[in-house]
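#struct-help
A.M.: can someone run this one for me? Single chain, 190 residues.
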Amino acid sequence: MDWLTNWLKFMWDSNVIGSVIMPLIAVLIGWWLANWRADRKEKRAEQNQRIKLLHMLRHELDTVLKHYDAKGKYYLRNTLTGQIVNNSSLLNLEDHKELLKRLWEYMRGYESLNTAIESIPAMTTPKRKVIFDMSKRWWGDYDLVKYNKLSKYVDDEIETAINGSVKYIIDAAKPLLEEVEKQIRLIERK
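D.P.: on it. Structure tokens below:
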């Protein structure tokens, strides 16, 4: 240990510690502080973006639920905010598993709704043709009252298919809204 003490004394006496090592230590400390501040700034920016996404999703869910309560019908054909949140790297499966699970369930409801809407022509066109033919009078014109009466059954099938999908969306939106509220509170506490 005497050699280390001698070496340190020699370095101090020749001013190597003060002129070379101390500035190097200062640069390293400055670099560490700059990186630490940049990391904190980046985390704050990510947190702000995450809270914006969650507020947007909360607004969409509130609007969808209020519209359904008021009119009994769906408000959107696609969840725009849901797609943005789903594609965002700010909300990951590791930290937001429950939120994403509920979001995917909500988005499945929209897929079901779009499938129901897109299948309406294939489902109803043959039936409407038969109804149209059944509404034809023997002299060649059509009985519109009979056609409307028979069409009601087809319209009921369409409404049942769409309402099942809308109900799925609404049932998925309520727990998702609760989870969004929970996530907002967690982020705002940090």
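A.M.: thanks! The helical segments are 2-13, 16-71, 80-87, 97-134, 144-189.
D.P.: also worth noting: The two ends are 49 Å apart (CA to CA).
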